[in-house]
Design a protein that fits this description.
Helices cover about 40% and strands about 10% of the residues. It is built from 7 helices and 4 strands, in the order ααββαββαααα. It has helices at about 5-15, 15-20, 65-70, 85-90, 90-95, 105-120, 125-140, and strands spanning about 25, 35-40, 70-75, 80-85.
Length: about 150
């Protein structure tokens, strides 16, 4: 799952530096305008390492913005959210008709989608920021930083 600088900063501030430290650089990523993104690592089978065996998100409370959008996907061409094609066929909540959004929630998700899209388009331009944040996270983890929110955030 692609992550943004906002995600990484939020993890650091919420006392979860191990999440920011786990982020990996992915080259030749298609569909967002940048050939490089930073993302949560995947298992050999392609699943996110933070998905449990029963398919639940182990970091649900602090999941990346792109995961907050699911089961929706953003169309920059039409500037709107629609059901993600995979979700339309496989997501249990979608199949049960449990994904209706009220106007406020739809507006909130659209704003997040725009932010994610804008960020993922410029990753190559701000790659140093990602690397600095990842190094900071690795230092925090190596120091044995506790899982607690940082007062300075």
């Amino acid at each position: 799952m692609p992550v943004t600088r906002f995600d990484m900063a939020r993890w650091m501030c919420s006392g979860r530096p191990e999440l920011a430290a786990s982020v990996v650089r992915v080259e030749e990523f298609e569909g967002v305008g940048s050939r490089v993104v930073y993302a949560l690592p995947r298992r050999e089978d392609g699943r996110c390492v933070y998905l449990t065996e029963d398919g639940r998100c182990a970091i649900y409370e602090v999941k990346p913005l792109v995961c907050e959008l699911f089961p929706y996907a953003y169309s920059s061409k039409h500037d709107k959210l629609g059901l993600h094609p995979w979700a339309a066929k496989h997501c249990e909540a979608v199949l049960r008709g449990m994904v209706e959004l009220d106007r406020d929630k739809a507006a909130e998700l659209l704003a997040k989608a725009r932010l994610v899209f804008a960020e993922l388009k410029i990753v190559e331009e701000v790659e140093e920021d990602y690397e600095r944040m990842r190094m900071w996270a690795l230092e925090e983890v190596s120091r044995g930083a506790q899982r607690r929110p940082r007062a300075s955030c």
